[in-house]
Structures are given as C-alpha cells and as structure tokens.
Amino acid sequence: MVNAFWQIGALVIFTAMNLLAHAYLSFNQPDILAGNMINDYVKGKKKFDYPAGIQKGMALHRAIDEFTDHHPATQQAKQYFKADYRLYAGAFVDVLYDHFLANDSNQFKDEAALKLFCQSTYKSLQINVGLLPLKFQQTLPYMQSQDWLYNYRFKKGIGRGFEGLVRRAAYLSDSTIAFTIFNTHYHALEICYDSFFSELKQFSLESLNRLNNEAQ
C-alpha cells in the first residue's frame, strides 16, 4: 500500500495501496477515511498522536489488509504474478483490485456515481488535511489533480499504478510484465475480485462496528 515499507530478511518490500478500496470501505465517515488512507504513513506509537476516530480508521485499514491478503481469492490471484515478482505479487494484486472495484456496478451504479464518490473523498480528506502526515499532505494534491481514484477505472490507470509501485520498490525495475499478466489473465483476476469483495465489505462493516462499540 502506498509508501509502505517493511523489512523481510534483507529485502525491503513496498506495498502498493488499493486506495479506492480503502476509501470506499470507510463508509463515508471522514475520520475513518483519514485514518484508513494514512495508515501506511504512520509507524509504531505515532498512531497515538491522532484523534480517536482517525486511530479507528488506521485499525480498520490493518484489518482490511489482513483479510484481503489471507483470502483464498487473493492467494489465487497472486499466483499469476509470483513467478515474475515473487514477494511483490500481492502488491500488484492490491492495485488491480481497485480497477475491478471502480468498474463494479454493484458498488457504483455508473461512471457518474464513481466520479461523485472520488470527488467527495478528496473533499473529505482536505477537511482533515492539517492533521495528516506531511508526506500524505504532499501527495494529496497530485492524487486529486490527476484523479487517481477515478482513473483506476481504466487499464491505463492501473498501468500507471504498476509503474509507481515499481519506482518505489526495492529490486524491481520494470512493470511491463505485470501489465501484460493483468491483461492476459484479466477475466480470471476479475473472478478473484468478484469472489471475495462482498465478503470484504461485510467484514469491514462488522470490523468498524466493533471498533465503534469498543470506543464507547
């Protein structure tokens, strides 16, 4: 997920965040959205520097990541990328899931609904921008001006997402193979998304309700 690095042995792994999914699974709650979107920019005890609502958003982000990564559909989707990208396979799957979400008529009834959601997300993040980490504050104008969330709807947007992942990742230099895999196995990957997203949405809503109840 975006700008997230961690150590696995001697290898530093970058995870390319599925930004649209984390925004969508914040259920139109501004503090939850802020925490959900900045989680990968906040390390260790720094999370306690943020208001309780934003902390809940961070916790929800981590729950979403764990559910997604361990779901059998994601494990299957990773197999298409593992031969060429090994430990980075999950990062590419995260990015392409946003493409299928952006085109999912069960979540966004049409292109206009997606556009409206994306604009609402940027506006909500701007409201809390003073609370957000500096690196995210610096990223947000580009995210908004280039409309990253909406452009995941198009294959070229996913191609750029793959390119961005490679630029930030250790030991990766080319995203063209990943983009070819995405196109070659497009329908199989779409089936992986379809087989788990409704479960992820339900899990996320239940997790958020639990976090809210714990805070009372």
Can you tag this structure with a few keywords?
216 residues, mainly alpha, globular, disordered N terminus
Task: Give a written overview of the molecule.
- It is a single chain.
- The protein is mostly helical and 216 residues long.
- The protein has one domain (4-215).
- It has 11 helices and 2 strands.
- It has helices spanning 19-24, 30-38, 52-70, 72-85, 89-102, 111-127, 134-145, 148-151, 155-168, 176-184, 186-215, and strands at residues 4-8, 11-15.
- α4 crosses α5 and α5 runs antiparallel to α9.
- Residues 1-16 have low confidence and may be disordered.
Order of helices and strands: EEHHHHHHHHHHH
Tally of alpha and pi helices: 11
Proportion of strand residues: under 5%
Helix content: 55-70%
In spatial order, strands of the major sheet run: 1-2
Q: From the alpha-carbon coordinates, what is the Rg to the nearest angstrom? A: 16 Å
**E-strand count:** 2
Structural class: mainly alpha
The total tally of domains equals: 1
Runs with pLDDT <50, length 5+?
Answer: 1-16
